[in-house]
Amino acid sequence: MQFLPSIPVTASSSDGIIAGIVIGAIIVVSIYFIIQYLIASTFYQIACQKGHEERKYFHFCFWLGIVGWLMVVALPDRDPKKIKQPSGSSYAEQRKPTPKIERDVSSTHQSKQIPEAIPQKDGFETGSGNGAGQTPPEDFEIEGDTLLKYNGSEQNVVIPDGVAVIGAEAFLGNLQIRSVTIPKGVTEIKGHAFDGCIKLIEVSIPDGVTRIGDNAFIDCENLPLVKIPESVTWIGVGAFSGCKKLADVSILNENVKICNYAFADTPVQTKFKPSGGCYVATCVYGSYDCPEVWTLRRYRDHTLAATRRGRAFIRAYYAVSPTLVKWFGKTKWFKKMWQGKLDRMVKRLNDEGVENTPYQDRVW
After folding, report:
1. CATH topology of domain 79-101+112-275
2. What is the pLDDT of residues 287-307, one digit of tens each?
3. Domain residues of the chain, as ranges?
4. Which long-range contacts (CB under 8 A, 24 or more apart) does 106-113 make?
5. Which class for 296: exposed (0-12), middle (13-18), buried (19 or more C-beta within 10 A)?
6. What is the pTM of this model?
C-alpha cells in the first residue's frame, strides 16, 4: 500500500502558525471589546434618558453583557415630579418658602464666610425687575466655585461672579424670586436648582453653560420664555417640566441632548421632542412625519407603551436601532430588508383601525 509522503513541519513554520493564531486572537478580542464598548455606550445613553446618570450602568453593560443590558432596560423612568427628600422631612416642608429675613440696619450682620475666589461687595446690582434692590453676599452659601444655597428674600437676584456651578436645590421652593441673572462663568445648573420657584418670570442663561440638570426649572409655573445658548449640550429629565406658561423657547444648539420629559406639561412639549424616535422606520420612509411613521408611532404610544413588556421592547429597540441606523442606514440592502416588513405591518395596523394622520407623540 502506497502512503502519501509526510510533510515535515519545521520550527519556522510552526512559529509562523502560532504567531498567526496569536495575532488573530488579538484582533478578535479587540473587535469584541470595541463592539462591547459601543453597545454599552448605547445602553448607558438609554439609562441617562430614563434619569439614571450613574456611571455604574455603563460598567454593568460593558462587563456583564446581556445581563447589564436587561438591567438597563428594566430600569424605571425617574418621575420628573419626584423630589429627593431628606429623611425626616416631608414634601410640604421642602416646599415651604424661604422665610423673609428682617434686617436691622443698626445691628451688625452675621455674615457667612465667602471664599476669596468670590469678592465680597457691599451689594450687587439686581436684574431688570426693579433695578433698585441689592443681593447681599451673605445671602449666598458658597463652597469653592459652587453655589450651595440662596437664603435671601430678594425678588431680583444676581449670582456673584466666580460661581461655576449652581448646586442642586440651591433655590428650591423660593417663592420671592422673580428674576435671576447668572454670570458668564457658570458651566452647570444642577438638578432641582430652581425647582418650584413659581414667581420666576425671567432667567438669563449665559453662553458657557453646558449642562442643565434634571428638574432644574421644574414647576416654574410663570416662566414665559427661555433662551438656551449654543454651549448647552444636555437638557436633563424634566428640566422645564411643569412650566405651564413657557411658550417661547429658543435652543441654539441643534445637537443638544434633550432627555425625557424635559418640556413635559408645557406649551412647547410637542415642539422639542426627546432625542430619539422611530429610527428604522424613519430611515426606511425618509421622514419622522409621514403616514407610515404616524401609524407606527400611534401603535408604539397606545398599544406597546400600555404594557410592561411593550415598554421593555421599546427601550430595547431604542437601545439597538440608533446604532444599526448609524452603521447601515445609508445602504440599500438595509432599507430593502425592512421596507417589506414595515409595509405589511403598517397595512395590518391601518386595517385594524390605527390612523395614519398627523400625530403628536405622547410622553409615556
Report:
1. 3.80.10
2. 777 899 899 989 988 898 888
3. 13-73, 79-101+112-275, 279-351
4. 109/136, 109/138, 110/138, 111/137, 111/138, 112/138, 112/140, 112/141
5. buried
6. 0.47
